Write a sequence for this structure.
C-alpha cells in the first residue's frame, strides 16, 4: 500500500494470507524464472490465436496493432526501464523502443507533461471495446454451429448415467464433459467436487472520460500505478490491484489517485459514468492459469485463473484445452498449467 499499484483492506487480509504467502514463495528468483518460461510459451502465441478469429468475426475495426507506451517521469526510472527492455529482448524476444521527451511529445501532442521519456512496447495489440470483441466471437461461434445457453453454473453435478448435468432456462442439459471457466468464482464451485484452489483475488477499477484531449496509444504511468487507454467510450483510466473482500463495498481510492495524476498529464474532460466499473481478477499463486483435466473426475475440465490476462489468453488457453480434451498433441506443453499442481 505504499504506492498506488496495490492497496488493501486490513479487515480482508486474513482471507488473502495463504494465497499471498504462496505467491511470495513462487516469486523466488529461480522459481519465477521457470514460471516465466512457461508463461512466455503461451503468451507469445496469444495474438496469433486472436488473429485467427478477428477477421472471421468481423472485428478488425476494434483492434489496434501498434503497442502501448509506458511513461517514465525521471531519468533514473527511464534508465531502469531501458535495462528491463534489454533483458526482455534478450531472453524472450520482446520488442520495444526507448524514446525521449521530444519524440513522446510529437507522438502524443495532447500531453502537457512528458517526464524523461517513455518505452514504446511494440508487440501488444489493444482493443477499443472488449465487450464488443467478445460479442463478435460469440456470434462467430453460433454461425459455426454452436449453441449458447443461459443457466446456473451452481447446479453443475455428475449425471446419474455418467457425464454431467446443469440447469438452464430451457431445462436440464446433459453432457459427456463439462468445463469450469468461471474466473474468480471457479474455486467456489469446485469446492463441491472436493478441490481446493488458492486464489489471489485482485479487484480493479476503471472509468471513462470524454470531452478532453485524446491519446493515440494507451499510456501507462507506472509512478502512479494506472493506465490511460483510448476506448470507444472515451479515455479509460484503469487501476492496479486492490486486495479486498469479494462482496465488500467499492473503495475506488486508486482510481481517485489515478485521476488526479492523469489530469496532470492532459485534459481528461468529464467522467462518462456516474460510478466506476469494478471487477475481480482471478490470479493464481504461481501466476499461471489452471488449464486441463480435473484429477479425480472424468470429463470435468478447468480453464480459469488468467489473472489480468483473461481476454488476451482466452483463445490460446481455449485451444490448449480443446486439444487436451480431444486427446491431441497440445500446441504448447500443458503440464505447467495442469490443475493437478494444486
Amino acid at each position: 500500500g505504499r504506492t498506488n499499484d496495490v492497496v488493501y483492506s486490513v479487515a480482508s487480509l486474513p482471507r488473502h494470507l495463504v494465497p499471498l504467502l504462496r505467491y511470495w514463495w513462487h516469486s523466488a528468483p529461480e522459481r519465477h524464472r521457470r514460471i516465466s518460461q512457461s508463461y512466455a510459451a503461451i503468451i507469445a502465441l496469444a495474438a496469433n490465436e486472436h488473429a485467427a478469429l478477428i477477421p472471421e468475426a468481423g472485428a478488425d475495426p476494434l483492434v489496434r496493432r501498434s503497442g502501448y507506451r509506458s511513461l517514465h517521469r525521471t531519468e533514473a526510472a527511464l534508465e531502469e526501464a531501458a535495462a528491463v527492455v534489454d533483458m526482455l529482448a534478450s531472453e524472450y524476444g520482446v520488442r520495444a523502443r526507448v524514446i525521449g521527451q521530444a519524440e513522446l511529445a510529437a507522438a502524443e501532442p495532447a500531453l502537457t507533461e512528458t517526464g524523461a521519456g517513455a518505452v514504446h512496447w511494440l508487440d501488444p495489440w489493444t482493443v477499443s471495446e472488449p465487450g464488443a470483441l467478445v460479442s463478435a466471437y460469440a456470434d462467430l461461434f453460433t454461425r459455426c454451429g454452436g449453441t449458447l445457453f443461459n443457466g446456473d453454473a451452481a447446479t453443475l453435478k455428475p449425471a446419474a448415467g455418467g457425464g454431467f448435468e446443469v440447469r438452464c432456462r430451457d431445462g436440464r442439459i446433459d453432457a459427456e464433459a463439462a468445463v469450469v471457466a468461471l474466473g474468480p468464482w471457479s474455486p467456489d464451485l469446485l469446492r463441491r467436487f472436493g478441490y481446493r484452489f488458492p486464489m489471489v483475488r485482485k479487484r480493479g477499477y476503471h472509468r471513462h472520460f470524454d470531452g478532453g484531449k485524446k491519446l493515440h496509444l494507451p499510456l501507462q504511468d507506472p509512478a502512479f500505478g494506472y493506465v490511460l487507454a483510448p476506448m470507444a467510450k472515451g479515455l479509460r483510466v484503469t487501476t492496479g490491484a486492490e486486495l479486498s473482500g469479494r462482496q465488500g463495498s467499492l473503495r475506488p481510492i486508486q482510481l481517485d489517485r489515478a485521476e488526479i495524476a492523469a489530469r496532470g498529464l492532459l485534459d481528461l474532460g468529464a467522467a462518462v459514468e456516474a460510478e466506476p466499473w469494478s471487477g475481480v481478477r482471478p490470479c493464481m499463486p504461481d501466476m499461471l492459469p489452471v488449464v486441463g483435466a480435473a484429477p479425480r473426475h472424468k470429463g470435468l475440465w478447468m480453464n480459469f485463473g488468467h489473472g489480468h490476462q483473461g481476454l488476451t489468453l482466452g483463445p490460446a488457453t481455449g485451444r490448449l484445452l480443446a486439444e487436451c480434451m480431444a486427446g491431441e498433441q497440445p500446441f504448447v506443453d500443458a503440464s505447467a498449467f495442469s490443475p493437478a499442481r494444486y
The longest strand covers residues 200-211. The two ends are 29 Å apart (CA to CA). The mean pLDDT is 95.
